[in-house]
Amino acid sequence: MGDVRPDTATLPQADQAALLVPTANGSTEPDEAQLLTDLFGDPNADGVFGVAAEEVSA
Question: What is the pTM of this model?
Fold first, then answer.
């Protein structure tokens, strides 16, 4: 049926990186940035989104 997936928990990081392949898959959301902003608020200066708003107000 194809290659058996290796146990990545025991592979060295360089070997794990070698398993990564480009898929050419794009975002499944037409406006992913807005979706992430709605869920997590504005990203920081590095473009990283934070904790979900529900978790902050809890």
Answer: 0.44
- Between the alpha carbon of residue 43 and those of residues 8, 29, 32, 55, the distances in Å are 31, 18, 13, 16
Cα distances (Å, whole numbers) of residue 1 to 4, 5, 26, 55: 9, 11, 26, 43
List, for residues 3-57, the tens digit of each pLDDT value. Answer: 777 776 788 888 888 888 877 777 788 898 899 999 888 998 888 888 765 555 5
CB 41 within 8 A of CB 49: yes
Distance CA 44, CA 29 (A): 21
What Cα–Cα distance (Å) separates residue 50 from each residue in 11, 42, 56? 30, 8, 10
Query: What does the DSSP 8-state code read for residue 42?
Result: S
